[in-house]
């Protein structure tokens, strides 16, 4: 009993037993709080609202933050100048696959690939383009009208050896002239009320379908043709497994790849979109798997 009591009276030892452990404890006591403060400051700075006088409140930056996801474009069907040429439609929509021959698409200018298709005729090619065929969605996944798609078909087919005539825009309906009846000399003078002014009916404006699913317009115009179905190894929209190894690069890294082009995807998906638009559509696709 006396020995146990003696052990109880001995001083208790702390966790620090050597000078080296004491040194590490002192360093940790200073370094850990400093790191915590730095992380906290970075978090606050990254999430705070733009301060007055900074670029975050510039008109361009504000407009980019509040820009609508979808938009409605109005075109006058009687104004041929508002319709895109075949080359313009190709550059905006078709080049994503036909520029490189991705997903079995006949490559632009490849007469061998286009030969069997040209033999089917313009109407068959137009029907395939409008309704979709194989990996290609209806209208190539874009928002162009039938005439514009037809022009693009002719542009590509003729570069592949065809000699199709380009479809023409419908001529504006001519208004019928109103014939005024002149009174004869024998007829009694009759007071004629002034005719009501004739107002020529303008051709109806054709709205281009806006994206109602919250996707940026650029996604439907250029990206959906491959990313909607996973064509040419493109990560399918919403497929978390396919996107998982790519997410490590972050939105900025993925945007840089999209701008420069990667694999079967040409630079900017074959479009003339701005870097900001590319980043918006990349962020949309990344958000779909989070």
Give a description of the structure.
This protein is an all-alpha fold. Among the domains are: 72-169 and 205-210, Cytochrome c-like domain (Cytochrome Bc1 Complex, Chain D, domain 2), CATH 1.10.760.10; 214-290, Orthogonal Bundle (Cytochrome Bc1 Complex, Chain D, domain 2), CATH 1.10.760.10. Helix content is 46%, strand content 3%. The protein is built from 11 helices and 2 strands; from the N terminus they run H-H-H-E-H-H-H-H-E-H-H-H-H. The protein has helices spanning 2-9, 19-47, 59-66, 86-98, 111-119, 122-131, 146-159, 217-227, 240-247, 250-260, 275-287; strands at 73-76, 205-208. It has a two-stranded antiparallel sheet with strand order 1-2. Helix 4 runs parallel beside helix 8 (217-227) and helix 10 crosses helix 11 (275-287). The two termini are 66 Å apart.
CATH homologous superfamily caption of the domain at 72-169 and 205-210: Cytochrome c-like domain
Please, what is the oligomeric state? single chain
**Name of the top-level CATH class of the domain at 72-169 and 205-210:** Mainly Alpha
The run of helices and strands is: HHHEHHHHEHHHH
Shape call: elongated
Helix content: 40-55%
The CATH topology annotation of the domain at 72-169 and 205-210 reads as: Cytochrome Bc1 Complex, Chain D, domain 2
Alpha-beta content class: mainly alpha
Largest sheet features: 2 strands, antiparallel
Range of strand content? under 5%
């Amino acid at each position: 009993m006396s020995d146990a009591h003696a052990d109880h009276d001995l001083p208790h030892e702390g966790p620090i037993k050597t000078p080296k452990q004491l040194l590490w404890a002192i360093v940790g006591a200073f370094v850990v709080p400093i790191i915590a403060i730095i992380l906290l400051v970075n978090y606050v700075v990254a999430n705070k609202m733009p301060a007055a006088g900074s670029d975050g409140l510039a008109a361009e930056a504000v407009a980019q933050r509040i820009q609508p996801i979808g938009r409605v474009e109005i075109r006058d069907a009687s104004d041929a100048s508002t319709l895109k040429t075949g080359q313009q439609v190709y550059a905006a929509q078709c080049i994503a696959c036909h520029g490189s021959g991705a997903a079995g698409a006949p490559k632009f200018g490849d007469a061998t690939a286009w030969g069997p298709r040209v033999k089917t005729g313009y109407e068959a090619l137009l029907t395939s383009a409008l309704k979709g065929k194989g990996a290609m969605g209806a209208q190539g996944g874009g928002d162009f009208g039938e005439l514009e798609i037809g022009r693009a078909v002719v542009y590509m087919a003729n570069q592949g050896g065809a000699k199709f005539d380009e479809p023409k825009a419908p001529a504006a309906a001519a208004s019928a002239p109103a014939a005024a009846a002149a009174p004869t000399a024998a007829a009694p003078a009759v007071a004629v009320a002034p005719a009501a002014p004739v107002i020529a009916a303008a051709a109806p404006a054709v709205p281009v379908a806006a994206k109602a699913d919250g996707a940026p317009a650029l996604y439907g115009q250029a990206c959906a043709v491959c990313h909607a179905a996973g064509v040419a190894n493109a990560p399918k929209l919403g497929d978390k497994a396919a996107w998982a190894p790519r997410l490590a690069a972050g939105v900025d890294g993925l945007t840089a790849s999209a701008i420069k082009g990667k694999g079967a995807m040409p630079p900017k998906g074959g479009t003339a979109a701005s870097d900001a638009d590319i980043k918006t559509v990349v962020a949309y696709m990344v958000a779909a798997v989070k």
